[in-house]
Amino acid sequence: AARMGADFISMDGFDCGGHPGEEDVGNWVLSAQAAQELKVPFVASGGAATGSQLVAALAMGAEGLNMGTRFMATVEAPIHPKIKEALVKAKVTDTLHLLR
What we know:
three-stranded parallel β-sheet, 3 strands, alpha/beta
């Protein structure tokens, strides 16, 4: 994307919900590589939902995080309450990867 003129990049790791990266490389590995190789700013996308993970992404060179699933459970999100409840109750092992 940078070679095509992008000014900013969202680095989508395998753990980016709904639209994972094309390779089975997790966000934290991909972000470390991005910090070493990119000449444009990037945000880390996937597998992050806490303040400490934001700090980790910043320490690795990202400008910030993309958080999607985390915001689905907010009061403001126009999503059915049962879906929000399932998200909040889910354990880290409840993630299911499809089409792999």
